[in-house]
Amino acid sequence: MIRLGSMSTQTLVDSLEEGIPRLMKEATVPGLAITLIREGSMVWSQAFGVRNRVTQEPVALDTLFEAASLSKPLFAYASLKLCEKGVLDLDTPLVE
């Protein structure tokens, strides 16, 4: 797992560039594109792997992917991590 925490942007980018290929291999993910956003600005984008295992065509930053609805579990995970750190409380009404 790559821990984001409060690392500097360059340290985080270095960690992602080193860790993503390893994680892709472990999870048998052929390709992906990722963007890092900090304080509302895009600070890094990178494409990894191939878009087609047969043709070995590489992923580009403009590659279109079919995507599952992963935003809900990702949001739930992030919310629970914030609860774990005491930043959020699951019993607080959303209007607050």
Question: What can you see in these coordinates?
Answer:
- The protein has about 100 residues and is of the alpha+beta class.
- It contains 2 helices and 2 strands.
- It has one domain.
- The radius of gyration is 16 Å and the shape is globular.
- The mean pLDDT is about 90.
Fold topology:
Layout: H1 9-26, E1 31-38, E2 41-49, H2 71-84
Antiparallel strand pairs: 1-2
Which key phrases capture this entry?
2 helices, alpha+beta, two-stranded antiparallel sheet
Q: How many domains? A: 1
Q: Please report the distance between the alpha carbons of the first and last residues.
A: 32 Å
The overall strand count is 2
The ordered H/E elements are HEEH
- Oligomeric state of this protein: single chain
Q: Compute the CA-based radius of gyration.
A: 16 Å
* Largest sheet strand order: 1-2
Secondary structure category: alpha+beta
The number of helical elements comes to 2
List low-confidence stretches. none
Largest sheet: 2 strands, antiparallel
Binned strand content? 15-25%
Q: Based on CA inertia axes, which overall geometry fits?
A: globular
Helix content: 25-40%
Mean pLDDT: 88
